[in-house]
Structure formats: structure tokens, C-alpha cells
Write a structure and sequence with these properties.
disordered N terminus
Amino acid sequence: MEEDGVDDHNHNYCSGSNEKADTHPRRRPLSEAVPQPVCAPVPRGEPAGRRGKMWTGSAGGSSYMDSDSSSEGSEVSEPDCGSTPASGEGGCSLDPTSKFFLNAMAMEDYKKNHWPNLEKVIDRLLIQNPTDHSSVSYAQIYSYVYKCVCQQHSELLYNDLTSKVTGHLQQVSLYLQEVPPADFIESFNMVLTQYMASLQCIVPVFVYLNKFYVESKLNRDLNKDLMNLFSDQVAEKHVHTLMPLLVKAHSMPFEVQPSTMASVVKGLYNLRPEWAQLAPALFSGFIPQIHPPAVESHLSDYAAHDQKLQMELSMNGFSRGDQSRKRAIEDS
């Protein structure tokens, strides 16, 4: 029985006996002759820009883990979905409902994990002695701040940080209200020095917050903002109590340690330069160019002031030393 179609020795198929086998097929284009590879579509749940590492954690299959975090899908960062188109192949395909739930999960992670850990460290840094070196993982704090900024919690983190510092400074102000006048200068210098040392630790680990929120959006500096908090909450409330004590101590040599006087006066000037006008004579002893520039018409007044100062020093027991080789003062 004759078959309807046969293959010849060149494997040319013939559908029937009335048709001739095409023993010399025409040359086909390369695109038809060679099968083209088929690219698998990008999964809808994973943005094309995301690069994950595979891990074999369970029998149910493999899952993706972030290269810089140990949590699976717990972060919604700006580089992941913020810079990818919302539609089209390879883009971020999250609908509004999914975005809402992911943002809610990120917010819950901030409230339960990131901020509580940051708050504990800030407490330790604010109250530690400048000479103490406590074991604080600055790399871990830096990581928490970085994640908060990437999850678009910069404003919330800034508000929580300033609120925390403000609460601490209010307690410091209440403490200074109970300090007696005899110890007030020393106590003020202690809290000022302690706060300055704390900022040297806090500001560097919040560098991402400072760079991507405070500087770029608020056009300010984090260190300056925290210094202004001390001015508003502590220094401004006690400057009128502190200034008379400083003037009195400055008029009595060694009533207060010179290093303490210099630290307090320079600290007040750094906080508010206009406070120098409350006691120009005091600040001029530690800060240059407090008084206006000297003029020639006032030279006689300057000479009289210097003579008065020399007389006061000699009356208080300060010897001028050997004056035999100096020219005698000519009275005019």
C-alpha cells in the first residue's frame, strides 16, 4: 500500500505522488534558519533593578534576600521602586494597596525596631561622662539611620531626634535651677562640656539624615540645629544668672579656675555671639576683637587705663620685677 507522503534520502517531504520533491530548497534567511532565544519575562513581584542572592533556607523553595540586610522584603527603599516606572515590563508593578501595606510594614519596623534601638544609644551618649568610653556599636547605629532614610522616614527620624534631645535639655535646665550660686559656673561648664562631647558622637552617625534631609530639604546643618536647642532650652534661661557670676569671678583672680572661665565664656560666645555685649570687658579677655578697633584720638585714654591696671596689680602684691634698666615714666 502506497503511503501518502514519503521522505526521500534528503529528508524532503512529499505529500503525494503528483508532487515532485523539492530537492534543491531555496536558501532561507538566517532569522528563519536559526531559532532565536526566547527571554523569560521579568517576574512581576521583583523589580528589574533589584539584585538578590539566592539562598536555600527551606524545603519549599528558594527565596531572595537583600545583599545588605538579613530581612526578606522588610524594606521599601527609594532606589527599589522610587526610580522605576510604575508600568511596563521590568518596572515596579505594585498597586496602591500593596504600596500602602508595604509602607505600613516599614513604619511598624521603624517604631518597633529602628527608633527604640537608636533612642537607647542616644540616651547613653547624652548622659555619659566625656572621659568615659562606653561600648557603643556605631556601625549598628549608622545602619539604623541609613535604613530609616532609605525607607523615607527622614522627617520622622529628625523630629524624634530633636524631641529626644529637647526632653533631655529640659531636665538639664531643671537641674541647674537647683544648683547654688557658688557652684553654678562649674555646673554649667560641666553640662555644656558633656553636651558638646555628645554631639561629637551623635552628629557623625546621623550623617545620612544630615545630608539627605537637613541640608538638602531644610537648608540647615544638624550640628547647628542641636546647638540651637541647647541655646534655647538651657543657656538662654540661665544666661542672666550666669553673667553676673562670671563678671564677679573675673574680677577676683583664681576665684574660678581659668580653664573653666575660658570654657564657659567661649562656649557662650559660640552659642550666641550677641551675648558678648552683655559684658564686653569679660568677653574681651577671652575672645579677640570684642571691642571696636583702636583709634588715634583715644590713645591717652588707653594709656591711663593701662597705668590704672598696673597700679591695681602692684597693690595686690604682683611685683613688676627689676625696673632699673627701664626708662622712668615721664609725667606730663
